[in-house]
Give the backbone structure.
Amino acid sequence: MEVKEPDLSGTYTYADYMTWEWDQLAELINGKIFKMSPAPGKIHQGISGNLFGPFWNYLRGKDCKVFAAPFDVRIPGPSKRKTDKDILTVVQPDICVVCDLFKLDDRGCVGPPDLIIEILSKYTSAKDIRLKFDVYEAAGVNEYWVVHPEEQTILVYILGDDGKYKGNLRPLVKTDVISPTIFPDLHISLDEVFSE
Amino acid sequence: MEVKEPDLSGTYTYADYMTWEWDQLAEIIHGKIFKMSPAPSVTHQRIAGNLHGPMWNYFKGKKCQVFLAPFDVRLPSSPKKKADSDIVTVVQPDVCVICDPSKLDDRGCVGAPDWIIEILSKYTSAKDINLKFEVYEDAAVKEYWLVHPEAHTVLVYTLDENGKYKGHLKPFVKTDTISPAIFPDLHINLGEVFSEWES
């Protein structure tokens, strides 16, 4: 049987993405393929778990849900059309929180999550800070956290009234406690997030 | 012979610091001791070198000089308080540039460098982002860079007309080239700064 692998230089939709039979996690951003690192490191996964935990505890019995990667998030383009062949951006954020359960189906989420966390590595930092920042801002993801796992700092971006991200002058550090704007009574201690 | 080691909970001046006979690099910030990591990682040192190289080339023949850690920078609380017993802040920035030769003596620098770069680690990020940020802003260090060596990003802060640091919304990444505000014709290519040796 012929294995259907995409030409990496092509432009694709989510409908194409669903036909690929390769042993590779990938994201589509504006139709272009970005392969995912095959196995994130121990520090990355430890921090991902330490962030997921407090969200999961807090959201038990509530309407919002938290998901860890790999979890496909389809971001409709400016046309807002949600059919598979109209979707050119499918990302797998490290952590995302979705409060509108109508956005969820068996294949993941369609539409912008309320909060996204990306944990940087040297392989993803340019993509996370440039490309995904712009995608999440344009899609209306209310809050975007960018974690530097080895250096133990977090940059927090919150969508302003003008639809543009605003950030703090300085990153948060491990002595700080962070509360998402949508969950002001959830307090996440960064010392615990970064504990090994 | 008795070895003179300080009590870590005490408050000290540069005059005290000069009497310590211990096998330990340390900084003093507002009189408090902060021990330095004994051996920075290979990545940390490679990036420090990759920053120093283009800076050294650029400043050759100019009045500014670039220094790598360990290099003591004494920050007096006021211009008149330069005596050793008056100085309560002595730091060792990873990279610093000093353009006023009268600030240099045999023991290092007295007064604010023009540009400081700190390369973060999990041991120093809170100190570099909170404590040193404020110390450098108060001392009027014109430009302050924070390098995330593992994630390959750089945060750049520039002193504004009110003496406060201003930054950018997003960090710089390895596809960027940065020019410091005070040296606009120096171009630091982050792809080279973060490049790894062929093995």
Remarks:
- Chain B touches chain A at residues 120-122, 125-126, 129-130, 133, 148-153, 155, 157, 165-167, 169-171, 173-175, 194 (CB under 8 Å).
- Chain B has one domain: 14-193.
- The mean pLDDT of chain B is 94.
- The helical segments of chain B are 14-17, 42-59, 125-139, 190-193.
